[in-house]
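### Sample
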Amino acid sequence: MRRFQHYACFDWSGQAVARPKGLALASIGAEPEDRPVLLRPQGGWSRGAALDWLLAHAEAGTDILIGMDLSPSFPFVDAGGYFPDWADSPADARSLWAMVDRMCADDDHLGAGSFVRHAEARRYFRHGKGDTGDRFGEAGTGRLRVVERHQRLTGQANSASCFNLVGAAQVGKSSLTGMRVLHRLAGTIPIWPFDPVPDKGPVIVEIYTSIAARAAGRGLSRSKVRDADALHEALAALGSRPPAPLIAHDDHSTDALITAAWLRNAARDKALWHDFWNPQALDEAIRVTEGWTFGVK
């Protein structure tokens, strides 16, 4: 059972601007007295700066578990491919990341607009009211990864389709921009479960902040925290001290803080170690194509 010395959480954003308001990062040390810390550069995070932060920890070999709130892949298992009937559909997640990054090479800020505007790719996405691609999938929901269907069936989360690009629940844009970052890490940091967990150094896992919020005593309808009292209460439920006073309690910052504290608990819970790192439904085909959300058992 590996024990990390540090834990961190990126609340990710696919917003097509230089410094997305929804991009936040928090970290926490392994010791009980360690407070969660909101890490925020002057002017806020860019995706490029987030990539640099990750690469710096890769170079340093930091003993840190990093959660990223994004879907690292699209559904594959349900239809035998990410983009059925498209000759260029990739065979696995790493090939998908390379494809997205290549097709979006001219997009500023590690954005992904070029991919969803591509004549063939756009057929698989919901772009807006009255603008749904003919390959989007199930009406209303859209295609889901195995882990997303599992979450819905077990009540652990209410995941949305990565092919949805519209509305408050859309996760497609953040997933696509995240894929560009994962590709550019180029194997410098193992990404579970696509890679095995090494004995030392940093590791990246996919997380859902709503799972952390529920573990902190917040129901699905109360998962967003926007004031100091609610933040401190949620952190206390996770056995964490409060952070230094925040300038503002936006839900991206509080999501990152709460999820970093949850990740520290979840990753070293002996009772849940096997369920979280070796979920029963995760087979080899899912591992290389779709991945899995850490904390979903």
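The beta strands are 6-11, 24-29, 37-39, 64-69, 126-128, 131-132, 203-206. This sample (DUF429 domain-containing protein) is used throughout the tutorial notebook.
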